[in-house]
Specification:
The protein has 163 residues and is of the alpha/beta class. It folds into two domains: 56 residues, 2,3-Dihydroxybiphenyl 1,2-Dioxygenase, domain 1 (Roll), CATH 3.10.180; 68 residues, Roll (2,3-Dihydroxybiphenyl 1,2-Dioxygenase, domain 1). Helices cover 19% and strands 29% of the residues. It is built from three helices and eight strands; from the N terminus they run βαββββαβββα. The strands form two sheets. It has a four-stranded mixed sheet with strand order 1-4-3-2, covered by helices on one side. It is elongated. The structure holds fe (ii) ion. Fe (ii) ion binds next to strand 5.
Length: 163
């Protein structure tokens, strides 16, 4: 019917636009395409990584997500995963976050048996941080491919490396 490639853009609710805009600009490195008020209670900001108009949209909203309810993973989005070009870029991102004192809540890890996890892991290098509302952000690279028609894990190693 149709083929999906990767996460295109994601919209999330934020409780403090200034705070989140600063976070996504300075920590994550997004470029602001535009910030627009919509009515009395809504403002939205388009953010981009490259040449597309937007990859993310931040919405202020009279939402249930507030500073008291923004526990990890309980704000309607489990995690937003941002793929980096290669290991070098991933290491730059990790270094950048650390230099800003951002807490790495999980990782850096390798998803898979190489990282002491399950064989079903993707093999990607990954680490996670939280945005100001508790939304988990994953930064990853080197996710393995599973060619069309191939099972995973492949039969020639599945039985031998399961933990
Ligand atoms: Fe992920």
């Amino acid at each position: 019917m149709f083929t999906m490639k990767r996460v295109g853009h994601v919209g999330i609710h934020v409780t403090d636009m200034d705070k989140s805009l600063k976070f996504y600009s300075e920590v994550v490195g997004c470029t602001v395409t535009g910030r627009w008020p919509r009515g009395e209670d809504l403002e939205l900001t388009f953010l981009r990584f490259g040449e597309m108009h937007h990859d993310m949209v931040l919405f202020t909203h009279p939402t249930q997500v507030d500073p008291n309810s923004s526990e990890k993973g309980f704000n309607g989005l489990n995690h937003l995963a941002i793929e980096l070009e290669d290991r070098d870029e991933w290491l730059k991102a990790l270094s950048h976050m650390r230099s800003l004192g951002v807490e790495i809540i999980q990782g850096p890890i390798i998803h898979g048996i190489e990282g002491d996890q399950n064989v079903f892991g993707s093999g990607s290098r990954s680490f996670y941080i939280l945005d100001p509302d508790g939304t988990r952000l994953e930064f990853y690279t080197d996710m393995m491919r599973v060619p069309n028609g191939e099972p995973f894990p492949r039969a020639d190693y599945a039985d031998h490396i399961k933990s």
